[in-house]
Amino acid sequence: MKLLEGKIALITGASRGIGHGIAVKFAEQGANVAFTYLSSVEKGQELERELQAFGVKAKGYKSDAADFKAAEELVNAVIADFGTIDVLVNNAGITRDTLLMRMSEQQWDEVINANLKSVFNLTKAVQKPMLKQRKGSIINMSSVVGIKGNAGQSNYAASKAGIIGFTKSVALELGSRNIRSNAIAPGFIETEMTAALDAKVVEGWRDSIPLKRGGTPDDVANATIFLASDMSAYITGQVINVCGGMLT
Ligand code: NAP
Q1: Pick the CATH number of 8-242 from 3.40.1160.10, 3.40.50.720, 3.40.50.2300, 3.40.50.300
Q2: What is the pLDDT of residues 103-122, one digit of tens each?
Q3: Which pTM value belongs to this model?
Q4: Please, are residues 146 and 203 in contact by the beta-carbon 8 Å criterion?
């Protein structure tokens, strides 16, 4: 029996990186997958075909998670296409790194809107169908940076810390309706987002991790499968660090 057989999942930001890894692993485990991207139309179409090859229903939507109205329209479209939503993975995120001294208001707003407001937008939109069916699992992609902070990422760290407070509050509000809300805090996961970093910095990161390697999208996807599946039926309001021991 596959772990997500027949479940309907909505994953934001799945055209690349961690979201892409989650979408593929979910389909492999039997989930029907609705996913979004911001601008990577071709990659979205490719992913749709890749997921359908697992024999599940899959559809990509071009939708800006930072836009409240667009999130509402997206959820309505997914429900029209798939029937309901059992699992929401709020994965979409961006960085605009710089020291506070140089950070513009725009760099602050863009990160808070794409990373934190998006989580509010999508969670609010899926709340209704999940309440109706009296079940659901919401999984929010935070970061170790949201727990410990990081120089040059005050906007990003604030957005990721905000996600943790939001996740725990939603767990308290919706637990009685069998809707679970958890966060994942990945450490250093090697994707396009981290490929922009200097090679020496990357070596330094790898060296400082107890497991002596950067994580892969699959490492994060495996934890996401667990939180999406009924294996985690008694787990809510938690943050799971997927960081190779970095925070230990
Ligand atoms: P990535 O490779 O840059 O991919 C980001 C994805 O999000 C893309 O699919 C992108 O779509 C989408 N996206 C960005 N803004 C969006 C918006 N407003 N609406 C909808 N989709 C949007 O990033 P990643 O490394 O996989 O990171 C995924 C998540 O994990 C992020 O929340 C990130 O903060 C978190 N995280 C990453 C790491 C790491 O080390 N990589 C560590 C901790 C946490 P397009 O392709 O269309 O642009």
Answers
A1: 3.40.50.720
A2: 999 999 999 999 999 999 99
A3: 0.98
A4: no
